[in-house]
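Sample log: ATP-grasp domain-containing protein.
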Amino acid sequence: MSRPFETVLVANRGEIACRVQRTARRLGYRTVAVYSDADAGAPHVRQADVAVRLGPGPASESYLNVAAVLDAARRSGADAVHPGYGFLSERADFAAAVEAAGLVFIGPPAEAIRAMGDKAGAKRRMLAAGVPCAPGYLGDDQSDERLAAEAEALGLPLLVKAVAGGGGRGMRLVRQPGELAAALAGARREAESAFGDGRLMLERLITGARHVEVQVFADAHGQAVHLGERDCTAQRRRQKVVEEAPSPIVGEAMRATMGRDAVAAALAVGYRGAGTVEFVVDAEGRHFFLEMNTRLQVEHPVTEAITGLDLVEWQLRIAAGEPLPLTQEQIRFDGHAVEARLYAEDPYAGWTPQTGRVLRWRPADAGIRVDHGLAEGGEVPPYYDAMVAKFVAHGRDRADALRRLRRALADAVLVGPRHNARFLRELLAHPDFTGARMTTTRLDEWAAAGEPLLRRPQPPEAVWQLAAALLGGAGSLGSGLTRPDPGSVGGAGSLGSGLTRPDPALRDPALRAPALRPPPPLRPAGLARLDLVVDCAGERRTLRAPPDEVRVLELDADGRVRWWHDGMQRQAVALRDGDTLHLVVDGDVFAFAEASPWPGTDTASDASCARAPVAGVVAQVLVAPGDRVEAGQRLACVEAMKMEMWLEAGAAGLVRAVHAAAKDPVAAGALLVELELDA
């Protein structure tokens, strides 16, 4: 249903809710936010005209609660609903319920969502429309026996995919015959949990492939256009990491062919609004239909950058019944754009999601676009996707865009949960990326092979010394620069507590320039040195503080540090949170924790305790008290941010106690299973 409307409820959270609100306000619409208890103080809530609570933190009790969303629209006076992406955005029953409630759904018709949401049925439609598809099994017989027989006929490697899936959920890669049974069980379980539909399909894996997708738009008047392609090949575990437009492997002829097929796909299902037709491209440059995402994509900003168009504005205008703003011949492309997804995850520990309080968040001021929904003092909760921000650089050409994006990632400051900013910078500079030689499995292959890019970075010696100076040296906390009040804003104050103390040497003209000799120590005469035991990046060291090699020249109230080393003045950011000093140096974040003076307090390596690796929800518990387990045996599974993490027995023994059940929310480090280890 297309008709005019006045108030837009955004049925989503985080950066996409903020982004939709920006355009809606610019066009004169009133905006309504919805939120869970975990997001009560989030930016998307604060910037809306009205905000309505949906329920507790878990998505199933809030953002996925259709009745609560519709009630929020009724109570707030909204007459249109924008679903964003994820959550309910590709649920045909939600689109239908919005329309049935007399509201405008800012998206495609429910029938189009249903047609493309059934991945097997969608492929049948595409084949009928002449759109090329990869070989696979799309049948209704879902028995393991039939699936195994079809897998054998297709050959390996292949993908097991949820028929109702999307976003990489409910998908498993099978390379060896012995992996099929576990892949079927895992994909079915995840699909039922995420989509309420455990049906599966099989698809022959196109090896050495690239992921290239085409942005399409259709209106209610039978017209459709494409806005060029995006290359989303850089992925980990089938989740996109970096996207760019145009694709570095697509020329004009290929763009025209893929665009034609994408428009045909949209018209085949009576599409309306924004959609993305995803293709896999083999080593010979042949493209095969993967699926259609019946919503706005995370990576839509790169298309906006090269076309100069606002895709959310197009969505709003088409939903109001207007025709497409441009014809295919009027659409122009300018330059190159690259988007990097900033994830709250640890790329050096298997991409495990990270949660916790945001101690500092200062996006780069480098003339690029940063879409986010973060706020200092807020939390990154365990219930939702791990992406917390998007950095988008537009340049004259690809090299220009990549250079600008790397610099912006280095300049941005995010302290709190671990994140992937350094990994992104190194990936964007890697020869396989700059040379357009990536494939959809390259990052996973690097992880398995121990590629240096995925080895945890260690702080340079000078940064260890800077940590010593700030933790125990008179040049930081000792000579008038006191430790922050634990009750300071956000609970994590800067080290300076509002004091700025330039080095006295800088006021002496004889010491200013051009000499490279170090400034005199800030340590008062006679002050004893300290020995500090400090942990960082898996290493424990005893540091002498204050050090001789490093001088702290200035430390301001915001934690900005100017320091001297090896004849040069450098910049850093320092934040103290409890016993941990967070240092941001040259774009890298290191956490220096003073070791506890109490023996026996480190339980992290205790093999008798299986603890939740992150905050999340218990997906499965496979043992009960009294069970015997062997080293490496799976005990329980915790799901957080669309990822399953298994806890395994560290040694053989008996299960002494189980402290959680399936669907229980758990905190990071929570004790789930206790073992009585064999002597």
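Observation: The chain has five domains: 7-106, 135-204, 210-454, 461-594, 609-677.
Observation: The CA atoms of residues 208 and 548 lie 52 Å apart.
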